[in-house]
Amino acid sequence: METSTEGSAEPTGDDAVASAAPEAPTPEPAPTTATSTVVEATAIAPASLSPSRASDFMQCPLLYRFRVIDRLPEKPSEAATRGTLVHAVLERLFDAPAGERTAPRAKSLIPGQWDRLRESRPEVVELFADDPEGERLARWLGEAERLVERWFTLEDPTRLEPAERELFIEAQLDSGLKLRGIIDRVDVAPTGEVRIVDYKTGKAPRPEYAEGALFQMKFYALVVWRLKNVVPRRLQLVYLGSGDVLTYDPVLADLERVERKLHALWEAIRQATETGEWRPRPTKLCGWCDHQAHCPEFGGTPPPYPLPVRAPESGDAAQGRMGPD
Length: 325
Ligand code: SF4
Known about the structure:
It comes from Streptomyces resistomycificus. By secondary structure, the protein is of the alpha/beta class.
């Protein structure tokens, strides 16, 4: 699951879904060379990529470093936490018989799923620590209800029987690159056609940004193709924030293109890991970044790079030039 966030400007993160995050490179032992800050390192590369981490690197290589290598903590946000809650409700609703999958039933699941979320991720309690009367929490839960209700205007769960919910997928490409992620819902038609569905609690992007939004879905489609040798028939993004559904019917060439793109991205990440050159790329999305205090673009200093580095070679500077498809 790529947990969605409010508004199209805030970056998505599956990071409410820590299990979908890529593994960080294993730090090598500290270098023993006493005379130089530039040392040889054995090849260190990320073990795997998820759509969110791939998007992080495309957005800002330094952000990727902070999240994957430094593993700097990030505060939970109301929007992302609400996204996690709504996803849990929509998933659990399918436990009920088809005829009972109604909006009131879905809304009745919210309090219990909120309790479960607080148990599994106690840090989310901080979000409402300064709300002793519970007014902000009530508004927040009310917005979660509205998002759940809106889903019923977009899809009819009484007519759906998902083949999978919250499906963890992982595939290793011939190059060794491991791709992983969690798909919100997989529908399989009687004819065998596969539809991959992802819920977003934010708003649908403007058409010129739709391609970026589809990157995550094509990533999943690539993993499904590599695992099952089946090209999904349809990719479907359900935007609960704006009440839109974005669909795309991929062809094999789309998936091959995404695979090439991910290999290029992986190579850029590998080079950055080895050289320690993680360039900040400031954009308006910096407003959502938790790491401004460590970012040179905002007068901060990154923590000491925890891995041995080698001197960059000419041509190593490919990092940071990637963009969605
Ligand atoms: S503040 Fe902006 S430039 Fe700095 S790390 Fe975060 S996203 Fe990158």
